[in-house]
Structure formats: C-alpha cells, structure tokens
Design brief:
Distance between the termini of chain A: 31 Å
CATH topology of one domain in chain A: hypothetical protein PF0899 fold
Distance between the termini of chain B: 49 Å
Strand content of chain A: 25-35%
Number of strands of chain A: 6
Order of helices and strands of chain B: EHEHEHEHEHEHHEHEH
Helix content of chain B: 40-55%
Number of helices of chain A: 3
Number of domains of chain B: 1
CATH class of chain B: Alpha Beta
Order of helices and strands of chain A: HEHEEEHEE
Strand order of the largest sheet of chain B: 4-3-5-2-6-7-8
CATH architecture of one domain in chain A: 2-Layer Sandwich
Number of strands of chain B: 8
CATH architecture of chain B: 3-Layer(aba) Sandwich
Strand content of chain B: 15-25%
Largest interface: A-B, 25 and 23 residues
Structural class of chain A: alpha+beta
Radius of gyration of chain A: 18 Å
Number of helices of chain B: 9
Oligomer: heterodimer
CATH superfamily of chain B: P-loop containing nucleotide triphosphate hydrolases
Helix content of chain A: 25-40%
CATH class of one domain in chain A: Alpha Beta
Largest sheet of chain B: 7 strands, parallel
Shape of chain B: globular
Radius of gyration of chain B: 17 Å
C-alpha cells in the first residue's frame, strides 16, 4: 500500500502550490503515472477519496490519472520496444542489455483551481 | 489551470537530502536496512550489535506497521532502541525518519540503524535520508529476486545474502545472483553471510565501520 504514502506527498505538494498562489479550492488534480511505475490507479483513487477529504483545499476534488506508456531501449541493436509486451529481453535481437526509457513516472501534471 | 510537472517523490527527495546533510554535520551515520519480511533483519541486527557495540556508539530505530517486539529484542542485545509505528503504511519516508531521529536523540551516536518495514517494493521508492542503504536477501527467497524487484537492488549500496547455512536445502545460484545484482548496480558490495551462525558477519561489520569513519571525517 505505498499508494497512501504517495497520496500524502501529492497532497503536501498541491497544498504548497495552493499557498504560493493563494488558492482557496482545487477542483481537480491530474497525475501522470508510468505503466511500470508499480502504482495501482484504483488504490490511488481510493486513497485520494479518503485523504483529500481531510484537506480543506482539496475536499471534494477529482483525481485524474493519465497513463504514460513504458518504453525500453536496447543497447545492443538500438531499437525501442514496449516494455509491458516484451519485458527485459529485446524482441528484435534477444539481447538483455536493455534499459527503461519511460514508464517509471509518478508525477503531478497539473491542477485546476476554482 | 496550473501546470506543475513535478515528480511526486521530489519533495521527499529534498527533505531526505536536508536530513542527510544535518546528520553529516552532526557526525551521525544513518544506515537504512531493508528486506522482505522473514529474511532475518532482526537477527542480522543482533549479530551486528554484538560485533560493533564496543567500537561505535550505536542505536537502532525499528519501523513497523504495529507492535514493539523488535525494539525489545534489540534492547536486550544491549543498545538503545526506539520503535516507530508507520500507522499502516508500508514504508518510511524522510519526514517520518526525521521525526524518529528527533525523538530518539542521536547527537551522541556514531551509527543509527533504521530497520525499515519488511517489504522489497515501497521502501526503495522513498529516500529516508540515510547515509547508505543496506538490503538483505535470504537464500530461501531465491536468486531471482533481483529480476523481480530491480529498484530495491539498484538503490542498495550493500547487499547481504543471508542464511547461507540453509543452502543445501534450496536451489540458490551464488554466481547468478551476483551477476544479476551487478548488472543493476555495479558498485553494490555483496556479502554472503549467516546472521545466525555468524559466518561472514565480521566482514560486514568491518565494511560498516569503514563507512562510518569515512562519513564522520
């Protein structure tokens, strides 16, 4: 259940932005979550409902999750491929000298104030 | 609409750096010890305490979702200990670690070992502010764990392969595990130990003393 810890950090960050911009209410928070970040959207949204109700700024706000695709790069043949589909082994040359380019993100993209 | 584009971990990373710097000035080395449940964290700690308590001023912070069985076991081993409850969360972050450090009082300590919550996923994501990360992988868990939990092995400066006294019972490939760890983290120090029999633990203690000295210089 790291989702709850992640939500606490998101709320802290948004509250800081709220103070800096003198916001009284935030209606929507949009996240960007990589496909292989290990974060489960459903848990995230459940935790949000519980935790955001405890923040004056965020009570009743909506959480939107945008998924970012996971892409792996192969050092052997310089190809890029879908991490979720093929995993660690390059489908082009069967090398395991590969690393993740994107897909690990857990970030706050934007917020909507009203 | 306000664009933010900020990693969720950024705030925690900043708090962790701040804590790390403060501990450095205070000449206190914080070791974050991570592993899955049942890999032998508490037994390893007790073995390390036996080897180190006459050489360093040390204390232990035990993080658990609930209960204080570990803190009591550690105090019986002869060092100061504090129990931190995470209140249901599966990891410690830098803020919780700071609270623990401040309540514990670490001015007079050279080495504080933080026993993180037993879990190979979440503790790897949250920087606690520790000087170094150590993890334990025990033989019964299998040599494929670096493939399944790559982030944990990537962030660990030191990996203990524990329970080597049980190797005759399990299929565990030493060379394969070393290769898998080194591919993720070429700088990782790897020790093969049995915390229960004490085999190899003296080398871990020496490594730790070296790290503490370098930190406090």
């Amino acid at each position: 259940m790291h989702e709850l810890g992640i939500i606490f950090h998101i709320i802290d960050s948004v509250e800081e932005v709220g103070r800096e911009n003198s916001l009284s209410k935030v209606s929507k928070v949009t996240l960007e979550i990589g496909e292989v970040s290990g974060v489960v959207d459903e848990y995230l949204c459940d935790c949000w409902k519980w935790a955001s109700a405890r923040s004056k700024l965020l009570d009743g706000s909506e959480l939107e999750v945008e998924k970012l695709p996971a892409v792996t790069y192969c050092e052997n043949c310089s190809e890029q491929y879908s991490t979720v589909k093929y995993g660690k082994i390059c489908p082009n040359c069967s090398s395991d000298r590969t690393y993740l380019l994107t897909g690990n993100e857990v970030s706050i993209k934007e917020i909507e104030a009203c | 609409m306000i664009e933010i584009k900020q990693s969720v971990f950024e705030n925690n990373d900043k708090q962790a750096d701040l804590l790390r710097n403060e501990l450095k000035q205070q000449k206190t080395f914080l070791l974050n010890l991570m592993s899955s449940p049942g890999s032998g964290k508490t037994t390893t700690l007790k073995a390390l305490i036996g080897l180190l308590k006459d050489k360093l001023q040390m204390g232990v912070m035990e993080a658990d979702i609930d209960s204080d069985v570990d803190a009591r076991a550690i105090e019986q081993a002869g060092v100061r200990a504090i129990q931190l409850h995470t209140g249901g969360m599966c990891h410690l972050d830098a803020g919780m670690t700071r609270q623990g450090i401040e309540n514990f009082g670490t001015d007079d300590l050279d080495l504080v070992i933080l026993e993180n919550v037993g879990n190979l996923v979440c503790p790897a994501e949250f920087d606690t502010g520790a000087s170094k990360n150590m993890m334990i992988l025990s033989v019964p868990e299998g040599d494929d764990k670096p493939l399944k939990y790559p982030l944990m092995f990537t962030v660990s400066d030191c990996v203990l392969i524990n329970k080597i006294d049980t190797k005759s019972v399990f299929d565990f490939d030493d060379a394969a595990v070393v290769e898998r760890i080194k591919r993720l983290n070429p700088d990782a120090r790897i020790f093969f130990v049995s915390a229960k029999t004490g085999e190899g633990m003296d080398l871990v203690a020496d490594w730790l003393i070296e790290q503490v000295r370098a930190w406090c210089e």
